[in-house]
Design brief:
With 1013 residues, this protein is mostly helical. 66% of the residues lie in helices and 4% in strands. Helix 9 packs across helix 10.
């Protein structure tokens, strides 16, 4: 192994970059204060990004742990998670105790990212698998950086594999705590329009928490300083001008030109960039040039022992060749001291580009053969991926196909699904070029979900092309490459038309169902129906059981009914017959939900609780996460909110511990709904906000936004309600409507329209919902909508513009109320409330209508709903006009006002205050003082009640309207009017109104008019 060799091509003096260093140091200061920082460092190749990072790291080392990881390029392939693995390895070495504590309990999962932690378990592969790993990684970094500042540097993002890009995006989006600074660098001139890093940069630019630094080229003065450092002497100004002009301020080119000038090679240089980069390589001895070519094709970094195996030189000759390359500053020793890399990747790329086609494939073959002969030549976690890359670039399909398949399995086990997909696509590309005898020796190594293993012994059945397509389709779905996965399923189904295989065809149709829903292309029903047709009549199998389980779940969410029950029951039966435990648990959970929705509450809840116990005991985390979503939701739907809260909080802890991000978001959305009902609106808003931001699924974000809209409506913030409604609609889309989304959405839309006086819009929203109908099991969403619609009609009763169409709307509402299920106490309470609102809409409600409603809600733990019906009962009591009724109404209004104030429910608070004012009731404080003599109304001898009546007379109200507004009888109103006319000395209502206007007793409000005599 070669020791350090001193070189002078890099300036020992750090030149310029003052502003950039200030930015980095300021970010570090914020990170040290506990505010995590995210920065992107961009600049063209050779501009000095690495030198800036090294300088910052050197300055930072006294205050923080610096962990550097670079993206690794092997041919055109990047190693999955390579920069994170390298940086985490450094962190573990620097802070072993803190790292061990932070990773405790999750070592098996984190080993997918850092194999040093042990063997990664087979684990569960699903669409949350990658996100689960990402969440655990972010949490690990936050914990390690909880007390000690950490700087995480990720270099060369332009080479990053897709999994690394996804993890970085997740880290930048979700990082919230810890003394952590993340700095990622990339070549900006490499980011062409179709470069895979480009969309990520655009996404990160939209995050306010991410700052981008663009590194500019050097000025002429800075170039002079750099040359002085390289030459250890003040350069000639003419030479500085020449090098500045030729390098255009690029720091690396300045170095190359300065060294060439110092060594007397400048005269032969051309203006070609490639020639500039190769000139010093070509000046090396032939053996050193050969070694440089070998290293260039080996990857970003190549181990010494692997170089020796490929070069096939004597050890002394190899050492001399390496010494010459290092001495010329072409190669440099890796920080670990076990290998070599080019000092700058631009030189490596130029050397690699200079290889002849046959030379490149021959070198890759030598690398592959050396690695096959001695697998210990490279680290174990990189061996399989590098071997696959070497054989592929050696253009030997027979050797490449098995190696690529092995690499795809490794990628899958690391949750690097996008890399797995690329490798499987590469295997499909190689397939036809591989001899039959080689293909027949291949065996399926990693079956995909319930994809049928040929119906025979996998140990003796050869791998088929269709098997590759199945694995690739699922890899695309898990890795978010759904468009590629859809194309693969389409090709597979075409092949299956030529060679019919109902079970495999059904499996591919299941994949299409999931993909079209995820891509907002439809609701997936047609694809599921096709799968059901294909398996109908076939013997029980895992595919058959999964088709039935998915069909039952789809029906539960979209159109619950007898078909859903039958499918769920048969799915449970078939899954048990074939030993598909996870499918069985999913189907049992669906069946329990359907039973609760159908009114068989105790049986359904017992079944769901048993599923939760089984999944937790057996470690079936995905189904457990779904149970923590559905079981509390069913409890909340029947009014058992306190039980639901306990389970939801337990579920959040479970989902966080297992990294089930989507499950956690669904649970938090359900928690927001329960806390709203229980009257804890502050925490409900917090839970809804979390659900609206953190979910991987658009639907979880839509649900969070919808709960925020509902809260804003109750608080009287109609603008915010409108904004959140728009967000919810955008997240839900129109491709996959479900009653659990559309009915609550309609309720809030209707409520906002009614509050804004848009009666026609409110009615249109209601009619759309009524036309769609209320499928079985949707009563929990239907009753609040019907209640809101009936209340809106009651509020609009006095508006002439609302009269057209009122009768039809009330008839439609009455019909819906008669047919919607009332199997739970909560639903019966809502039915009574809705019927009372319909009576109010007809002007016929009494205290006898509202008393049972209040009684029903007093038995439920829903303070806001109770406050609203108490307000309604108070209004009905005041309309009766008796003293006892007024006393009871006052108490009810005080209770309602207290709840409204506690919740900041401004709409309810305003309604209660208006009612109390009209009824001349004092909710708080001492009784109202007598009017001062200076008051014109008092000077005229008017009592306070007569003043209220005169105000309404001036506004043009009739005696009946005055009676309704002041909760007195029309006869009493007539007596008050007669007394007023006598005291004012006028002969009619018009003169009384004119006099009140001249005295300025009552300023005119919108909608008021002066009456004519």
């Amino acid at each position: 192994m070669l020791g350090p060799v001193e070189t002078r091509s890099v300036s020992p003096v750090f030149v310029g970059r003052t502003d950039e260093l200030d930015t980095l140091n300021a970010a570090l200061a914020r990170a040290r204060a506990g505010e995590p920082q995210a920065l992107l460092l961009g600049g063209e190749a050779g501009v000095g990004k690495t030198r800036l990072v090294e300088e910052f790291a050197a300055l930072t080392g006294r205050h923080a742990v610096v962990a550097v990881g670079g993206c690794v390029e092997i041919g055109a392939d990047g190693l999955p998670f390579a920069p994170f693995a390298a940086a985490l390895r450094t962190l573990r070495d620097a802070l072993p105790e803190e790292f061990a504590a932070a990773a405790r309990g999750q070592e098996e999962e984190l080993a997918r990212l850092l194999p040093d932690l042990g063997e990664a378990g087979a684990g569960h592969h699903d669409e949350q698998g990658m996100t689960r790993l990402f969440e655990l990684t972010v949490r690990l970094l936050e914990r390690v950086a909880a007390e000690r500042p950490v700087v995480l540097v990720l270099e060369d993002l332009h080479w990053a594999d897709a999994s690394t890009r996804h993890l970085l995006a997740y880290l930048f989006r979700t990082l919230r705590t810890g003394r952590l600074l993340v700095l990622a660098s990339y070549r900006s001139d490499d980011i062409h329009r179709r470069h895979p890093l480009r969309p990520l940069l655009a996404e990160l630019d939209r995050l306010r928490t991410v700052r981008r630094i663009e590194l500019a080229r050097f000025t002429r003065a800075e170039v002079g300083g750099q040359i002085a450092g390289i030459l250890a002497a003040e350069p000639d100004p003419a030479q500085v001008d020449d090098i500045f002009e030729r390098s255009d301020g690029n720091a690396f080119f300045v170095e190359e030109l300065a060294v060439a000038a110092r060594d007397g090679c400048c005269a032969g240089l051309t203006d070609s960039l490639r020639d500039l980069l190769l000139v010093r390589v070509e000046a090396l001895p032939e053996s050193a040039q050969r070694v440089a070519r070998i290293v260039a094709e080996g990857g970003s970094t190549v181990e010494y022992r692997l170089i020796a195996a490929v070069a096939q030189l004597g050890e002394d000759d190899l050492i001399e060749a390496l010494r010459a390359a290092v001495g010329a500053n072409i190669l440099t020793v890796t920080p670990a001291g076990d290998g070599y890399r080019f000092r700058h990747s631009l030189v490596r790329e130029a050397v690699a580009d200079d290889l002849l086609p046959g030379e490149r494939s021959r070198l890759n073959r030598r690398y592959a053969e050396a690695l096959e002969a001695d697998p210990t030549l490279v680290p174990a976690d990189a061996r399989v991926m590098r071997l696959a890359s070497y054989w592929y670039h050696a253009h030997d399909p027979a050797k490449a196909l098995p190696a690529v398949l092995d690499a795809s399995v490794v990628a899958r086990r690391r949750h690097a699904y996008t890399e797995q997909l690329g490798l499987l696509e590469r295997a499909m590309e190689l397939w036809d070029g591989v001899p039959e005898e080689v293909r027949s020796a291949l065996r399926p190594v990693d079956y995909t979900e319930v994809y049928p293993p040929c119906g025979c012994d996998p140990a003796t059945t050869p791998l088929r092309y269709l098997d590759l397509m199945a694995e690739a389709a699922v890899a695309g779905r898990f890795g978010g490459e759904r468009e590629r996965a859809l194309k693969i399923t389409k090709r597979a189904l075409r092949l299956l038309e030529e060679e019919p295989d109902p079970l495999r065809a059904a499996w591919f149709w299941i994949q299409r169902s999931r993909l079209v829903q995820a891509q907002a292309r439809g609701d997936g029903r047609q694809e599921l129906a096709t799968a059901q047709d294909l398996v109908r009549g076939l013997p029980p199998s895992e595919v058959h059981a999964e088709v039935l389980a998915l069909a039952a779940n789809w029906s539960m969410l979209h159109r619950p009914g007898p078909e859903a029950f039958a499918a769920a029951e048969r799915a449970v039966e078939y899954a048990r017959m074939v030993g598909a435990r996870e499918i069985e648990l999913h189907a049992r959970l669906t069946l329990g939900c359907l039973e609760v929705d159908a009114g068989d509450t105790d049986r359904g809840l017992d079944r769901m609780r048993q599923v939760l116990r089984d999944t937790l005991a057996e470690g079936v985390h995905q189904v457990a996460g779904r149970t923590y979503v559905n079981l509390p939701s069913q409890l909340q739907g029947i009014g058992r909110d306190r039980e639901a809260v306990v389970l939801l909080r337990e579920g959040i802890a479970f989902a966080r511990a297992q990294g089930l991000l989507d499950s956690e978001s669904w649970i938090r959305g359900n928690l927001a709904e329960v806390l709203y009902a229980l009257g804890d609106w502050a925490e409900a808003a917090e839970a809804a906000t979390h659900a609206s931001r953190a979910g991987h699924s658009a639907k979880t974000r839509g649900t969070g936004a919808l709960h925020l809209a509902h809260l804003a409506l109750a608080r009287g913030d109609l603008a915010e309600a409108g904004r959140q409604l728009a967000a919810a609609r955008a997240h839900y889309g129109t491709h996959d409507p479900m009653p659990q989304h559309s009915l609550p959405l309609a309720r809030v839309v209707l409520g906002v329209a009614a509050e804004e006086g848009r009666t026609a819009d409110a009615r249109a929203e209601l009619l759309r919902a009524l036309d769609d109908g209320f499928p079985p099991g949707t009563q929990r969403y239907g009753w609040p909508l019907l209640r809101a619609a009936a209340g809106a009609e009651a509020e609009a009763r006095a508006l002439p513009a609302a009269e057209p169409g009122r009768a039809e709307i009330l008839d439609r509402l009455g019909e819906a109320v008669r047919h919607l299920a009332t199997g739970a106490p909560l639903w019966r309470a809502y039915e009574q409330w809705t019927r009372a609102e319909l009576r109010r809409a007809q002007g016929a409600d009494t205290a006898d209508d509202w008393s049972p409603v209040v009684t029903a809600f007093e038995c439920l733990d829903r303070p806001y709903d109770l406050a609203r019906v108490r307000h309604r009962l108070a209004a009905a009591l005041l309309a009766d006009g008796g003293d006892d009724e007024r006393d009871r109404a006052l108490e009810l209004l005080r209770l309602a006002a207290a709840v409204a104030a506690h919740l900041d429910a401004r709409s309810l608070a305003d309604a209660v205050a208006r009612l109390a004012q009209r009824a001349r009731l004092t909710l708080t404080g001492p009784p109202r003082q007598a009017l001062a003599p200076a008051d014109p109304a008092a000077a005229l001898g008017l009592t306070s009640r007569e003043r209220d009546v005169l105000r309404l007379v001036s506004a043009g109200r009739t005696n009946r309207q005055i009676a309704e507004e002041l909760f007195i009888s029309p006869k009493t109103a007539s007596v008050h009017v007669s007394n007023i006319l006598s005291k004012l000395g006028v002969s009619g209502r018009g003169e009384a109104a004119a006099l009140a206007h001249r005295l300025g007793l009552f300023p005119l409000e919108d909608g008021d008019r002066l009456v004519a005599g």
